[in-house]
Amino acid sequence: QVQLVESGGGLVQAGGSLRLSCAASGRTFSNYAMGWFRQAPGKEREFVAALTGSGIITDYADSVKGRFTISRDNAKKTVFLQMNSLKPEDTAVYYCAAASTTGAVRRKDVDYWGQGTQVTVSA
Fold it and tell me: Distance from first CA to last CA of the chain, Å, rounded?
């Protein structure tokens, strides 16, 4: 069993930055690929980024490539999402997820979800 708790959301102006964190419980954190999703009001939850258990291989949605960076610290059982050059269209609830592979994350074939953290970007 893995529990995921996100933090770091908030209100930021367009062009600003935020760093989201997702703290995991459980002894097998490094076995999981981890990812971030987001869901805006009235829209489906969409893939943002993922990385392998080792943290070596990453995958990004085209809409965030070059602006967001996903990383992890397996010793601290934490995954991060550094978000730069934020845009109003990045406004959403951001969810952390754990899955067997990065491909599974992208397919939304997720084993565990966090509860989400709100990110609001003002124009």
Answer: 40
